[in-house]
Design goal:
There is one protein chain. By secondary structure, the chain is of the alpha+beta class. Helix content is about 30%, strand content about 25%. It has a single domain, classed as Phosphatase 2c, domain 1 (4-Layer Sandwich), CATH 3.60.40. It contains 7 helices and 12 strands. Strands 2, 3, 4, 5, 6, 9 and 10 form a 7-stranded antiparallel beta sheet that branches. Strands 1-12-11-7-8 form a 5-stranded antiparallel beta sheet. The longest helix is centred in the middle third of the chain and has 28 residues. The chain is globular, with a radius of gyration of 20 Å. The two termini are about 35 Å apart.
Length: about 300
């Protein structure tokens, strides 16, 4: 049984000056290593793979050049954050593959142009999360629509987007469409994202899920296509040592029940082997779509 938390509420009011110094500095937090695995497969039916994925790390470090202080007087640490994203393109033939690839490429271009990187989560950063996400979505959407405008053959081209920004122990998940994020914590699998499909909208309204299966792949929200406005879900969660964070396209979630996903996430300590096992399970159960997975595995607490 999976549960879906409420999306992060917008918090854009300015922090009072009296609180600024307290909110500006992050409190010490739990430290643990994280390892990643990722895999994608065309599936057993499709003639092309419209999925794309990426995992990247960002580091902020200081290097001492000159000082008259003793080495013990200066503590120069390093911050590291990670981003992982899956995108499932749509539009048929080569256009779906192009849409998901273009969305990822544009996101990383924008990340290099950003005037600041969020490396730690404090109330100050949370205030800006919605604005930051909206800015990225607006730019990526504009890029996709520009391509569609310039080449009418691309009409209908679009992509889902599900990403996770790991600022451990905090994680920010951004979601558009029906690719998913799951968190396995103490043996319980929790679906973080909420599918933005017509079928899910009917289910939310109380309709029997069995009767709306034919609407599973009608997206109500996605990048590209003819959407005039795209709004992303944003979820904030925390990882603990031993947790598994999974991002996947619907080629996995449509084929493999949640209880089997949970079982596979727990049976191996190596994230790449977990990913390969999830792909194989989807293929063994039919592999009717492209399937892409990323797993982040949190290790033991660092000393």
């Amino acid at each position: 049984m999976t549960t879906t938390p409420d999306p992060l509420e917008d918090t854009i009011d300015l922090i009072p000056a009296a609180q600024f110094s307290e909110e500006f500095f992050a409190h010490p937090s739990e430290s643990f290593p994280v390892e990643f695995g990722a895999a994608t497969h065309i599936g057993n039916v499709r003639s092309s793979n419209d999925d794309h994925y990426a995992v990247v790390s960002r580091r902020r470090s200081s290097e001492l050049i000159l000082t008259d202080l003793s080495p013990d007087d200066l503590v120069l640490g390093e911050d590291c954050s990670y981003a992982m994203v899956v995108a499932d393109g749509m539009g048929g033939a080569k256009f779906g593959e192009f849409a998901s690839r273009l969305a990822l490429r544009r996101m990383f271009e924008l990340a290099q142009q950003a005037t600041s990187w969020v490396m730690k989560i404090t109330d100050m950063e949370i205030q800006q999360v919605r604005q930051r996400v909206d800015a990225y979505v607006k730019k990526i959407q504009a890029t996709l629509r520009d391509y569609i405008h310039d080449d009418p053959k691309l009409a209908g081209m679009g992509t889902t987007w599900t990403s996770a920004h790991l600022l451990l122990p905090d994680v920010l998940v951004v979601h558009i469409g029906d690719s998913r994020a799951y968190l396995l914590h103490e043996g319980e699998l929790r679906q973080i994202t909420h599918d933005e499909t017509m079928a899910q909208a009917f289910i939310d309204a109380g309709v029997d899920p069995v009767s709306v299966k034919r609407f599973n792949h009608i997206l109500l929200n996605n990048l590209g296509d003819d959407k005039s406005k795209v709004t992303a879900q944003i979820h904030r969660l925390q990882m603990s040592a031993g947790d598994r964070l999974l991002l996947c396209t619907d080629g996995l979630s449509d084929m493999v029940p949640d209880e089997d996903i949970a079982r596979i996430l727990q049976r191996d300590a190596v994230p790449q082997r977990i990913c390969d096992a999830l792909i194989n399970e989807a293929l063994n159960k039919g592999g009717k779509d492209n399937v892409t997975v990323i797993v982040a595995a949190a290790g033991s607490q660092a000393s």
